[in-house]
Amino acid sequence: MKVGSPEHRDLFCSAFIAGYRAYEPEQLAWPIVEPKYLERLRAIPFWGVAKAMERKAGIMVTAFGKTLEDPVIREAVLLQGAEETRHARLITYFIDRYGLPARQIDTPDLLPARKEDFVVFGYEECVDFFMGAWLFRLASQLDVFPADLVSIFEHIIFEEARHVTFFINWFRYEEARAGRDGVVSRHLVALKNYARSIKQLVRSFAGEETTGFAAVNAKDLIEGMTPMMFLEAALAENRLLLGRLDRRLLKPSLLPGLALTMLTALRALPPRPVATERAVPDNSRRSLDSSIAA
Ligand SMILES: [Fe+2]
Ligand SMILES: [Fe+2]
After folding, report:
1. Which residues are found with C-beta within 5 Å of the ion, ligand 2?
2. pTM here?
3. 269 within domain boundaries
């Protein structure tokens, strides 16, 4: 299949649409959460930001979809907009149901929705997906969050895996049709766009509330969190979720490639002092190793 061909367009749009799952947030099997978990959930300062980010995504993606002339791509982008809007409703329901603290952040009803806005958003989603998708599974493995609650969030995270895969295919399709699909120029464009998104993540590390905030605060949730644990968990989750999607689709590869290089370099370093080793529970290291080997 040639990238940029009508067959490519039909594949990435139809695969995305076929992956849609009908549900309403209120009808999901929300569990009764034990006080020890509730306390942890209530200590996370991220919920208001998460709700606002999803709401903005729904508004912008829906508005962008309405500008598209190609009916096949338009249908898929509008579906993504509906899924982002549903994410905002789901987080709102979650906040209300468990009485979580959530700072009110006003979101305008209209947002710029040009092609470049969708591109910036798409790369940000790729970074957020890679940085954050692993968090709930690892938190569940380590019993930081209850498994029945995590399974609800796994649906959202899988929807985000579909979004980033759709985005990467759409972007390459558009670039190929514009005659810009050479290997070198393609990687330069991707690096430029990722750099812009990673800047946002750096702002998160500096304490600012952006979409990378949850991943950045993971070290407060997961005792003994190390860069190697993070890279292993992120790569394993990335492989697991993207592996569930159609093999013929292009998948985000630049960030996983950089992460794998960093992980290989970290593994080549001399062993850490014993005290640091003890901070990580033995059972968690085993489960991480088995998932990365899968
Ligand atoms: Fe979303
Ligand atoms: Fe998304």
Report:
1. 160, 163
2. 0.87
3. no
